[in-house]
Specification:
Oligomer: single chain
Distance between the termini: 13 Å
Radius of gyration: 14 Å
Number of strands: 6
Shape: flat
Strand content: 35-45%
Number of helices: 2
Order of helices and strands: EEEHEEHE
Length: about 90
């Protein structure tokens, strides 16, 4: 199984925070408790300053051959995955 972690990015426009996409992170060959892993990895993933925020919005276990929506669309339209989900070590 893989642990898939999804984030949301926000940018500060002075008077409000605007959502600007996000990222997918994976831990391959994951074994253990997902919640414990996410809490331990949070420091490597999340960022919060006056201009930029990235926060974890979801995590789940997926099959080893699972492709994120972005990876699947690259495969469908370009025939290859150029920008894979960011891999983390646990």
């Amino acid at each position: 199984m893989k642990l898939l972690i999804t984030t949301q990015v926000y940018e500060n426009y002075g008077y409000r925070w605007k959502p600007k996409g996000g990222s997918d992170y994976v831990v391959k060959q994951f074994k253990g408790d997902p919640t414990t892993a996410v809490m331990a990895l949070r420091e490597q993933i999340e960022c919060d300053n006056e201009a930029y925020r990235e926060t974890i919005i979801d995590f789940r276990l997926v099959k080893d051959d699972y492709l994120t929506e972005f990876e699947q669309s690259q495969l469908d339209y370009e025939g290859k995955i150029t920008y894979a989900a960011k891999e983390l070590a646990w």
